[in-house]
Structure to design on (737 residues):
């Protein structure tokens, strides 16, 4: 799995760098594999100053990776910052 | 949670319904929030497909006698007239006022799209704010619906059916696993397609740079994109067209914009990785998460995390070392379990487990510092991180670079440092703002915590503001003082004025009246009819009037009608950037004149153009018809002393 992850990361980097090279002088300032097949990159450019974060999620997803919306309230509707959002991992596991 | 992005637009009122997502929300197949008219949603189907779709929906309530009535809402502020369904997903109670008629019923939950929900009446209450049973629902009944509700008896059967019909995709809504609303769609079938008009977004929303969040679909992947904005020198944001182009270049065929502005947030493995424009993370109503449900595994490698790669030497660098298992889940480690070294060896460096301190670097050139972490025990793969450390900035940028303000005004300063890499490329550097030395020449004011505070003076004062970071400087010219008011329009006639309603259903009329005026021979009476149209309606006086150089304050006399409308101005700077400002957040005064004055933003490329003054309503229930008088539109300029 590690080797597959590294290969995918390399492939993604090559794709992204070709995109970056063609597009407005973007610099990759952070790059991480954050789950099997899932990559996070932070891009910056100086003119105009812009920061962009990109997460690439493969489709279809393996069953161990789950996309789900969640509500902001811990008990129904409401508003929460990310660290306090209910992750609903038990419910997601039952999907 | 491996990662998350903010989701739909939502209510931010101080009402009990704050945090109500505006559009579609389906979670684990359960319908929680209805689609917002014509707005798109990102949809996940149970077969694993992810797509973007708009929906038409119908919602009906079948009564015991077989007749049907429309259902007017789901988990949202109840309408003045009709039925609104509350499910346990909303919360503990309906939050309605005392005296509200409510049907409490058991139900075969969960509520799913296109599947009838069978209810059995338990009780009809008139207490309001009923408890929503975990195995049932509450139907809030208002207006004529309340009398229908009062005729029901315990054990009466009811049925709710909410049908979703996809408008631009083909699938069975019963197969929806999850959905989250947003809008507008910005890519369609490999082409840029900014669908603001179809989804009820304004042109200015499209054309103004904002922080943005979007999702894009490729053949083999879903992309989440978060763009920081409203932070000069760091990140300005993107227009919707720029965002669409970015996603298209990244290989996406379809893409959807989500809520942005201060809501734009990207959360990755335990931390917010972007810089939200409010200066802190905004609590949001819903989010899209990626969960990693692989079973936990032992640590196989280490990872070094830092928020940036480019630093001014001597600046404390946040640096965290964590363990990663084979499925990239992060696990915390004690610094005692690790050996951390840096190359090249720099005397005096230290790391406390959270922050790396490097002493100031000598010379002119940046140096690459490689941080290597190895475990003291175990076989986890070591990690390295390369930092680029600059002895001083190559360029310092101060914004605004020209400040023209009345006495006593405060202006927030943005200072960014750029470092030249060995390949001649410029990179933004992180630095400690406390290290910046500010100098003010001329008696124009002072700098306090990165904010310029203009002096209190009755004369025109000119000066220079200088920021100094390790011998590299940036300057801004400053002019403080008030010279005079210049009249932009007397409203004695309609010359140069155009009246526009938005949307087209909003009727706007104008006439010059001479009976009620503040100055000159007349005043402009703007009549508006906001009874028809969507949620956002505006009545504008379009002027397109260039403002004189040095314009710093705008003033106008307004004879209110007590309607509560929002009163704003729309300006454009010399580069074409739009600026919206409030004259009054509510026209609450009635049958009297008020002088409204606002400070214009400083440091923008001049000349500014006053495009329009407009009344606006943004809530559905604001269906007012009225008339407001305007007179004596003036601009205040600060002189140059010449």
């Amino acid at each position: 799995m590690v080797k597959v992850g590294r290969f995918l990361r390399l492939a993604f980097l090559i794709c992204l760098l070709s995109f970056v090279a063609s597009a407005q002088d973007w610099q990759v300032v952070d790059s991480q594999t954050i789950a099997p097949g899932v990559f996070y990159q932070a891009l910056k450019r100086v003119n105009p100053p812009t920061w962009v974060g990109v997460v690439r999620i493969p489709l279809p997803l393996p069953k161990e990776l789950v996309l789900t919306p969640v509500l902001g309230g811990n008990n129904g509707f409401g508003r929460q910052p990310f660290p306090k959002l209910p992750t609903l991992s038990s419910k997601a596991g039952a999907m | 949670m491996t990662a998350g992005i903010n989701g739909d637009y939502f209510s931010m009122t101080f009402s009990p319904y704050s945090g109500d997502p505006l559009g579609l929300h389906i979670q684990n197949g359960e319908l929680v929030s209805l689609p917002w008219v014509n707005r798109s949603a990102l949809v996940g189907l149970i077969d694993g497909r992810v797509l973007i779709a708009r929906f038409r929906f119908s919602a009906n309530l079948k009564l015991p006698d077989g007749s049907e009535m429309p259902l007017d809402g789901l988990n949202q502020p109840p309408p003045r007239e009709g039925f609104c369904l509350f499910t346990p997903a909303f919360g503990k109670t309906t939050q309605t006022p005392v005296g509200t008629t409510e049907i409490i019923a058991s139900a075969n939950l969960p509520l799913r799209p296109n599947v009838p929900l069978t209810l059995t009446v338990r009780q009809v209450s008139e207490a309001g704010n009923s408890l929503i049973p975990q195995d049932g629902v509450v139907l809030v009944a208002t207006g004529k619906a309340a009398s229908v509700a009062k005729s029901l008896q315990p054990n009466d059967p009811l049925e709710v059916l909410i049908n979703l019909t996809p408008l631009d995709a083909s699938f069975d809504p019963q197969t929806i696993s999850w959905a989250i609303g947003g809008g507008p769609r910005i890519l369609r079938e490999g082409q840029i397609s900014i669908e603001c008009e179809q989804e009820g977004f304004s042109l200015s929303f499209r054309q103004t740079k904002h922080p943005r969040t979007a999702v894009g679909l490729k053949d083999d992947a879903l992309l989440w994109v978060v763009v920081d904005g409203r932070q000069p020198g760091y990140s300005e944001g993107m227009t919707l067209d720029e965002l669409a182009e970015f996603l298209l270049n990244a290989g996406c065929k379809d893409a959807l914009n989500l809520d942005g502005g201060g809501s734009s947030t990207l959360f990755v493995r335990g931390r917010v990785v972007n810089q939200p424009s409010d200066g802190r993370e905004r609590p949001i109503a819903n989010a899209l998460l990626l969960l990693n449900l692989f079973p936990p595994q032992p640590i196989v490698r280490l990872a070094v995390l830092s928020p940036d790669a480019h630093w001014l030497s001597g600046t404390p660098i946040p640096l965290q070392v964590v363990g990663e298992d084979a499925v990239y889940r992060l696990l915390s480690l004690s610094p005692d379990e690790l050996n951390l070294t840096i190359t090249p060896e720099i005397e005096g460096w230290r790391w406390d487990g959270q922050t790396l301190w490097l002493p100031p670097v000598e010379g002119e050139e940046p140096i690459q510092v490689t941080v290597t972490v190895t475990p003291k025990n175990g076989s986890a793969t070591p990690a390295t991180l390369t930092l680029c450390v600059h002895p001083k900035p190559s360029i310092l940028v101060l914004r605004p670079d020209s400040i023209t303000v009345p006495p006593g005004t405060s202006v927030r300063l943005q200072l960014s440092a750029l470092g030249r890499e060995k390949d001649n490329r410029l990179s933004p550097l992180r630095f400690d703002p406390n290290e910046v030395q500010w100098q003010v020449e001329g008696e124009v004011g002072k700098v306090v915590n990165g904010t310029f505070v203009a002096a209190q003076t009755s004369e025109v004062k000119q000066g220079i503001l200088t920021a100094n970071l390790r011998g590299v400087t940036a300057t801004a010219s400053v002019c403080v003082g008030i010279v005079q008011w210049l009249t932009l329009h007397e409203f004695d006639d309609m010359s140069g004025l155009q009246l526009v309603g938005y949307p087209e259903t909003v009727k706007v009329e104008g006439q010059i009246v001479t009976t009620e005026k503040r100055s000159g021979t007349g005043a402009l009476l703007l009549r508006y009819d906001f009874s028809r149209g969507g949620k956002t309606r505006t009545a504008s006086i379009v002027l397109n009037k260039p403002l004189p150089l040095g314009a710093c304050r705008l003033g106008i006399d307004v004879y209110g009608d007590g309607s509560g409308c929002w009163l704003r101005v729309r300006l454009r700077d010399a580069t074409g950037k739009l600026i919206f400002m409030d004259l009054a957040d509510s026209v609450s005064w009635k049958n009297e004149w008020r002088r409204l004055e606002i400070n214009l933003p400083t440091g923008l490329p001049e000349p500014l153009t006053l495009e329009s003054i407009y009344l606006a309503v943004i809530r559905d229930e604001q269906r007012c018809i009225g008339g407001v008088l305007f007179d004596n539109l003036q601009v205040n300029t600060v002189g140059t002393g010449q």
Q: What stands out?
A: Chain A has a mean pLDDT of 75. The beta strands of chain A are 27-35, 38-45, 50-58, 65-71. The first helix of chain A runs from residue 2 to 22. The CA atoms of residues 13 and 93 of chain A lie 31 Å apart.
